[in-house]
Amino acid sequence: MTPISSSLRRGSAGAPRDAARHSRQRPRHGWRQRLTPWMFLLVPLALLITFSYVPIVNMVVYSFTDWDGVSPDYTFTGLENYVEIFTRPELFKVFVASAYYLGAAVLQIVLALYFATVLSFNTRFRNLFKGILFFPYLINGVAIGFVFLYFFQEGGTFDTVLKLFGVGGEHLWLGDPDLVNYSLAGVSVWRYMGLNFVLFLGGIQSIAPELYEAAELDGANRWQQFRFIIVPSLRPLIGLTAILAISGCLSVFEIPYIMTGGAGASETFVIQTIKLAFRFDKTGLASAAAVVLLVIILLVAWVQRRIVPEERVTP
Amino acid sequence: MTTVVRASVASRVASALKYVSLIAASVVVLLPLGVVLLTSLKTSDELAAGSGPLTPPGDWLNLANYVTAFEKGRMAEAALNTFVILVVSITGTVFIGSAAAYAIDRFTFRLKKLIVALFLFATLVPSITTQVTTFQVIDQLGLFNTRLAPIMLYLGTDIVAIYIFLQFIRSIPISVDEAARLDGASSFTIYRKIILPLLKPAVATVVIVKGIAVYNDFYIPFLYMPDQSLGTISTSLFRFKGPFGAHWENISAGAILVIVPTLAVFLLLQRFIYNGLTQGAAK
């Protein structure tokens, strides 16, 4: 998010360069020249408005109505939907599931940082390990869902492996409400750790090698190099990842939907919203829920801007 | 002397721990996939007889499940649909993204700040939150249950591509444009003959990032193309759940069929994928 915003903004604020070009071109070209940029922007803007802004505006409008998504008309109900969201505890309990994914995101960042550091030093089969750790990120989500449905079967792979380590018994890894979110959050770590790891590795490799050499001459050990060179240089990237993890854990959808259908304790905010809209025909209420999520995510993005200085983020 | 010896012992232990952790992580990554591969080679009789997940299949060359998965799972149709959607939306994204980036970087015009702000704000809105109302738009345009629905959505919501192109366009000196303009080239000629060819590295990045995203996307085809004959790789695989029920040998074969092309592309284009994602995935 941030690199995009900074680069777009630089595009608009490139004042001196633009002004120079502008004054040179203006006299020779009239209205045709002024129309040219719009010719290039016509299609992108039409798509942007149709598929981003029309839905956003509609969503806000519907959130104040009792529309069911099918009937031709609806009535405005004011803040009723919002009141319902904030007062019906069962609509809010889906955020409990988000907490598991947030915990998983912390674990994921720590693991990614560890493996990125380890592999940035001289290691045998470096590229092989890098490839293995990264590959899950590329795999189709439905395939991942099936792979882990099988893995977590009662008496399946996971139970068999646990038995090898002396942990007996068969567990309902996906059926037990106390276990299901751990299992699903674990799949999330398995899937996304590789991306964070590759991003961190790229960040570490852009650190000037002289820094390590100097530190080694000063007698710094590996831990000190990690603590005082790697962590500070990666701080903006870690901050960005952490905040993306927050908005990510609020909008978890695919893996729980594929694996458990979002049943019971594994229901997430997005799954609930989708069910409200498409299964229970409560378009108004679902829109209000989506607006709440949007506001939360925009708040997180705003916090990100405040605490992560933009220019240093771009890897 | 003793400190040197102790240091070397410590570094050996550290090095051993490092390899142990890397091998452990590799096992965690590969085990769930390997088990599915083993299962995909077993017969249903083997599974019914209680063959454990870690037991190797009786016949390593038993590809019958793959044939079943490919034919009954309508995977050929799915591959074709995915391919069409992939090619059209990637080509479109390259032209639309580069045109928008060209206009934003190389021209000054009224309302430019507003337009940049519109693109910027749209990146912050997670598309999954607006699906409820996006669905109405697609439906009213008559695109529901056509391949155009995902294509239009992939084209219309890809602002990351514009960002990647903007970064590259900025590194192309304006003097190149100006020299061509002095030779009488129009803005369209400059875009088509000069800017677009110079954007090749950015095009590679966009193709990779977009290609992975479209190939793996489940939600958009699932919601907008429920028709059986319009399955993509993801949705056709998802439908294995019903008819194959507990036939894990077939479901496993289907999953492996979907993963193998990804693995092949990854092995061929490793370096491009790493670079592409570090540039594009910062989204």
Automatic annotation (TrEMBL), chain A:
<comment type="similarity">
    <text>Belongs to the binding-protein-dependent transport system permease family.</text>
</comment>
<keyword id="KW-0812">Transmembrane</keyword>
<feature type="transmembrane region" description="Helical">
    <location>
        <begin position="285"/>
        <end position="303"/>
    </location>
</feature>
<keyword id="KW-1003">Cell membrane</keyword>
<keyword id="KW-0813">Transport</keyword>
<feature type="transmembrane region" description="Helical">
    <location>
        <begin position="38"/>
        <end position="64"/>
    </location>
</feature>
<feature type="transmembrane region" description="Helical">
    <location>
        <begin position="133"/>
        <end position="152"/>
    </location>
</feature>
<keyword id="KW-0472">Membrane</keyword>
<feature type="transmembrane region" description="Helical">
    <location>
        <begin position="99"/>
        <end position="121"/>
    </location>
</feature>
<dbReference type="GO" id="GO:0055085">
    <property type="term" value="P:transmembrane transport"/>
</dbReference>
<dbReference type="InterPro" id="IPR035906">
    <property type="entry name" value="MetI-like_sf"/>
</dbReference>
<protein>
    <submittedName>
        <fullName>ABC transporter permease</fullName>
    </submittedName>
</protein>
<dbReference type="InterPro" id="IPR000515">
    <property type="entry name" value="MetI-like"/>
</dbReference>
<feature type="domain" description="ABC transmembrane type-1">
    <location>
        <begin position="94"/>
        <end position="304"/>
    </location>
</feature>
<dbReference type="GO" id="GO:0005886">
    <property type="term" value="C:plasma membrane"/>
</dbReference>
<dbReference type="Pfam" id="PF00528">
    <property type="entry name" value="BPD_transp_1"/>
</dbReference>
<feature type="region of interest" description="Disordered">
    <location>
        <begin position="1"/>
        <end position="28"/>
    </location>
</feature>
<feature type="transmembrane region" description="Helical">
    <location>
        <begin position="189"/>
        <end position="208"/>
    </location>
</feature>
<keyword id="KW-1133">Transmembrane helix</keyword>
<feature type="transmembrane region" description="Helical">
    <location>
        <begin position="228"/>
        <end position="253"/>
    </location>
</feature>
TrEMBL record, chain B:
<protein>
    <submittedName>
        <fullName>Sugar ABC transporter permease</fullName>
    </submittedName>
</protein>
<keyword id="KW-0813">Transport</keyword>
<feature type="transmembrane region" description="Helical">
    <location>
        <begin position="116"/>
        <end position="138"/>
    </location>
</feature>
<dbReference type="GO" id="GO:0005886">
    <property type="term" value="C:plasma membrane"/>
</dbReference>
<feature type="transmembrane region" description="Helical">
    <location>
        <begin position="150"/>
        <end position="169"/>
    </location>
</feature>
<comment type="similarity">
    <text>Belongs to the binding-protein-dependent transport system permease family.</text>
</comment>
<keyword id="KW-1133">Transmembrane helix</keyword>
<feature type="transmembrane region" description="Helical">
    <location>
        <begin position="190"/>
        <end position="215"/>
    </location>
</feature>
<dbReference type="GO" id="GO:0055085">
    <property type="term" value="P:transmembrane transport"/>
</dbReference>
<keyword id="KW-0472">Membrane</keyword>
<dbReference type="Pfam" id="PF00528">
    <property type="entry name" value="BPD_transp_1"/>
</dbReference>
<feature type="transmembrane region" description="Helical">
    <location>
        <begin position="20"/>
        <end position="41"/>
    </location>
</feature>
<keyword id="KW-1003">Cell membrane</keyword>
<dbReference type="InterPro" id="IPR000515">
    <property type="entry name" value="MetI-like"/>
</dbReference>
<keyword id="KW-0812">Transmembrane</keyword>
<feature type="transmembrane region" description="Helical">
    <location>
        <begin position="251"/>
        <end position="269"/>
    </location>
</feature>
<dbReference type="InterPro" id="IPR035906">
    <property type="entry name" value="MetI-like_sf"/>
</dbReference>
<feature type="domain" description="ABC transmembrane type-1">
    <location>
        <begin position="79"/>
        <end position="269"/>
    </location>
</feature>
<feature type="transmembrane region" description="Helical">
    <location>
        <begin position="83"/>
        <end position="104"/>
    </location>
</feature>
